Amino acid sequence: MTNLTLRQKMYTIDFSRPKETNEALLDFFMEVQKIKGHETDFYYKIMNKIVIGNSKFVDFKTVQLAKSIEQEIIRSA
Hints:
This protein is an alpha+beta fold. Helices cover 64% and strands 13% of the residues. α1 packs parallel to α3. The radius of gyration is 12 Å and the shape is globular. The N and C termini lie far apart (25 Å). The relative contact order is 0.19. The mean pLDDT is 90.
């Protein structure tokens, strides 16, 4: 289990709970899209991929991408 933090909000990533984790990832990427305000196609594709696997599994690469974006936003703040 790990957490993503963005604008004082925490998103819990727990691979044993795919539905809840994917909902958190969707919320996270929607917030990132608001913060960054560009690359809408990029974020749309990610969010669509999350929706497709919503209750079945958590994609490790998507979580890694989210952690990377989280760190990028922290550094730029």
